Structures are given as C-alpha cells and as structure tokens.
C-alpha cells in the first residue's frame, strides 16, 4: 500500500479533506502559511484599487485580494476606507494553487461581519503557525494547552485579541502596558515551548512586574 | 580533523527568519541550509504549471565560482524531482546552502584547481537540503540519502573507500557520488576518473547497501570496507525528534 505522508502545520479545516485514502497528516510547526478556504487570517493592506484591496498574508508571497464590497453593510457609496499598512481580520473565501487567494470580511450566508473587519489600533505580533492553530482551537486551554490568555484575563487585565491562521496575533487594550504584556506572554510561550504550569508562572511574573 | 569516523549530527529550524533551516555535520563538513518558500517568483523566472527551485551554494571562504554553480545545477535538478513542484505553480522555493566547515586539507594545493574536487561535498549538501526542506514543511515524494565512494588501488588490489578523505581522493583512480530516494531508487550519479563498467557496477552495489540497507536484501559486506552511518535512519530519527518537540503540548 502506498502511503502519502504530509508534514504540515496546517491540518485541513474541514474533515472532508481528511477522508482521502492512504493519506496521513503529520502536524508540525514550521513552514510558510499556505491559504486554505475557511481559514481566519490577519492581513496587512498593501494597496487598494478600484474594486479590491490587495492584502499581504505573509512576506514575499503574492497579495490576496479582498473585494471592497465584502464587508458588512458595504455598498458602492458606503465602503470602508483602508490605507496601506492597515490590518484586516478576514476569512479566506477562495484558495487555489493557480490563483491568488481571495478574502472576505462578511459571512456570505448571513451578511453579518461575525467579528471580521478592519482592526484599528492595537499591535500585531508574529507567532508560529502551530501556536496560531492552538490559539484558534475551540477549546484552546484543554486541547491546545495554552492558558496564557485565560490566566491574563483572570489576573484582571482587559484586552482583546484576534488570531490569524497565518501566524499573526493582534492585541488591543485601552492600556498600552497590557498590550505589551499580553504580546510578550504569548510570544514567550511560543518561543520557549512553555507547559501549562510554566505559562501560569510566566503570567504571574509579568503581572507582578507590571504593577 | 578526522570527523569521518564520528556520526552525523543535525539541528533543525534554528534560523528564525527562514521558513525552514537545518545545520548538518558529517564527514568533516558542516553546512547550514535555509529554505524559503513557496514565495512569489519573479515574473521572468516563473513557470506556469510548476514551482521554480532555486539553489544557492556558498563556499566556506570567498564567493562562489564555477565549482559552486556546478554543484547548484546538480542539486537543482535532483531536488526538483522529489519536491512536489506541481503543487505550487508560479511559486519559488529557494534553498540556500552555506558551507561553514570543510575538511581542513581539502584545498590540497591551495591553488584553485578545484574542477576535480566538486563531488565530495555533494552528499553533505544533499542531506542538508533535504533536512531544511522538511523543516520548511515542503511536500516531498521521498527523502534522499547520498554517499561518495573513491576507488583506489593499494598494493595491486582494488579497494572502495566510503567517505574518503582529501588525500585518499587524490590517490584514488576514480570518484563516484550516488544518491538514492527513500524508496531505494537511484536518483543521482556522478563519476570522475578512470573506471570500467564492471567496477562502476560494483561500486553502485556497495553504495546501494550503504544508502538503503533495508531495501537491498544483502548482508553486510564485513571485511575491510568501512561502513558509514545509516543516513536514512538518521533522517528519520531527526524528523521524529523535531515533530515530537513541535507537539510538546499534546
């Protein structure tokens, strides 16, 4: 029997893709983000043209396109004004190896943003693809064993985050110090491969230093 | 520097800005490999249906010359056969290999008469490239193992030396490099010097035994032929350790 083994940080989003015969997916942590339909990503606007925004998902890859009308309540007269360098939280709506990926900031079925759209203010951190995947898990604390965000929240910090499957994390808070602490806690957990207990210890240390 | 006897060593994903990287030390060579890709290819280089594989070899000292260009050409044509290039049309996969340590007495005459010493470095370059590609999670059809063998004549009897030193290469009649895929297929062969077809076939057999010990059903050759490390198993165990450390949280 011929077995095809794919080493990838990106397991398929939908289970129908796993069903292919004689195929094993081995999860890993390295490599470059390759867009797949349904992935939530954080992109940087590169430039805008008549109908599209051109959005960078990772360095040195061709831009993804984001239609200017793919936002909640967008119309020809009322569309978001995004400039070069702005961040957007979007879903990959079309990914195909022969074409540049396409994004959307609105659910095509409900017409609602569902949390997607431009990200204003805040700070962007680069994390590994494996870490992004863990943070995006439905139960990131139980399945992904990342508790930093929960711990920071229960330590009394108020902040919001958005995680992109392309290895980006956006953090925002009214307090700049909180933004830095949250970003540092997650990047450190990622780089030093911290276990649950170590993550709790790190959060306690960071919160103590902050006060 | 008699590193020929020590086993291979590798370090994976240690460069932060590259998508994948590996440092590989074996047989007196230490090579750092970095892989970036799939990234956007330049418009004039892109291939509509396939990825472009770009290999850059940089020597331990100075800038590359014809010797490096030759190695790059060999590596490029070998690697694009195992990379699933059709998965990334119009993209570029860039492989940079920096030699940091070469065997001390490699430049025997110090003068640049290198055209005949291209080959000994090839197995280490191939191994580094494959490890770096796996670190970058580039889909491959197979991994490679490679070996360099020198055919020498000592006291009238022929002897094949696996991973020969520079002096042994100098004295040898012919030098051969073979690379095999993990399925046991021959993918690259380069030879130089004088040899007969019969000799080449014998050397091929011992290379096969060296590179894919599991696929060739023969027993170990025993006697004086020094056997090197089993690079196939080595690659496998390095990858296993890498995946295990990636999934530390599971």
TrEMBL record, chain A:
CDD domains reported in the protein's UniProt record: KH-I_Rrp40 (cd22526), S1_Rrp40 (cd05790)
Subcellular location(s) per record: Cytoplasm; Nucleus, Nucleolus
Source domain of life: Eukaryota
Main localization (coarse): cytoplasm
Keyword list, A-Z: Cytoplasm, Exosome, Nucleus, RNA-binding, rRNA processing
Protein family according to the UniProt entry: Belongs to the RRP40 family.
Protein name: Ribosomal RNA-processing protein 40
UniProtKB/TrEMBL annotation, chain B:
Family to which this protein belongs: Belongs to the RNase PH family.
Family matches, as InterPro entries: ExoRNase_PH_dom1, ExoRNase_PH_dom2_sf, PNPase/RNase_PH_dom_sf, Ribosomal_Su5_D2-typ_SF, RNase_PH
Species this chain originates from: Apiospora phragmitis
Listed Gene3D superfamilies: GHMP Kinase, N-terminal domain (3.30.230.70)
The UniProt record lists the keyword Repressor: no
Limits of the Exoribonuclease phosphorolytic domain: 14-139
Subcellular location(s) per record: Nucleus
Name of the protein: Exoribonuclease phosphorolytic domain-containing protein
Sorted UniProt keywords: Exosome, Nucleus, rRNA processing
């Amino acid at each position: 029997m011929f077995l095809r083994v794919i080493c990838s940080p990106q397991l398929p989003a939908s289970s129908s893709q796993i069903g292919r015969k004689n195929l094993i997916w081995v999860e890993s942590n390295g490599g470059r983000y390759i867009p797949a339909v349904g992935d939530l990503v954080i992109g940087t606007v590169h430039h805008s043209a008549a109908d599209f925004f051109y959005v960078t998902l990772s360095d040195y890859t061709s831009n993804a396109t984001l239609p200017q009308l793919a936002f909640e309540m967008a119309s020809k007269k009322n569309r978001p004004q995004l400039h070069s360098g702005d961040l957007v939280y979007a879903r990959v709506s079309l990914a195909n190896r022969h074409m540049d990926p396409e994004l959307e900031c609105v659910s095509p079925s409900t017409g609602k943003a569902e949390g997607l759209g431009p990200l204003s203010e805040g700070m962007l951190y680069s994390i590994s693809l494996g870490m992004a995947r863990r943070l995006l898990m439905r139960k990131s604390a139980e399945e992904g064993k990342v508790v930093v965000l929960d711990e920071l929240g229960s330590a009394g910090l108020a902040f919001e985050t958005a995680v992109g499957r392309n290895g980006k994390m956006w953090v925002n808070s009214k307090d700049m110090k909180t933004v830095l602490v949250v970003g540092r806690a997650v990047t450190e957990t990622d780089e030093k491969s911290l276990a649950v207990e170590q993550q709790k210890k790190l959060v306690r240390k960071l919160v103590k230093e902050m006060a | 520097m008699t590193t020929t006897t020590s086993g291979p060593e590798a370090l994976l994903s240690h460069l932060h800005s590259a998508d994948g990287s590996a440092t590989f030390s074996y047989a007196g060579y230490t090579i750092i490999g970095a892989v970036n890709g799939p990234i956007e290819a330049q418009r004039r280089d892109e291939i509509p249906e396939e990825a472009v594989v770009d290999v850059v070899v940089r020597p331990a000292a100075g800038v590359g010359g014809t010797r490096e260009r030759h190695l790059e050409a060999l590596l490029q044509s070998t690697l694009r056969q195992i990379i699933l290039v059709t998965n990334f049309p119009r993209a570029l996969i860039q492989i940079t290999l920096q030699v940091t340590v070469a065997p001390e007495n490699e430049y025997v005459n110090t003068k640049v008469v290198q055209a005949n010493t291209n080959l000994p470095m090839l197995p280490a370059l191939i191994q580094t490239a494959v490890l770096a590609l796996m670190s970058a999670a580039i889909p491959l059809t197979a991994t490679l193992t490679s070996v360099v063998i020198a055919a020498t004549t000592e006291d009238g009897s022929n002897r094949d030396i696996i991973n020969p030193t520079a002096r042994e290469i100098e004295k040898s009649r012919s030098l051969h490099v073979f690379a095999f895929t993990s399925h046991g297929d021959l993918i690259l062969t380069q030879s130089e010097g004088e040899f007969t077809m019969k000799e080449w076939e014998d050397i091929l057999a011992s290379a096969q035994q060296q590179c894919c010990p599991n696929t060739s059903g023969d027993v170990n050759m025993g006697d004086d032929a020094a056997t090197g490390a089993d690079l196939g198993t080595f690659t496998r165990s390095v990858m296993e350790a890498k995946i295990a450390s990636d999934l530390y949280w599971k």
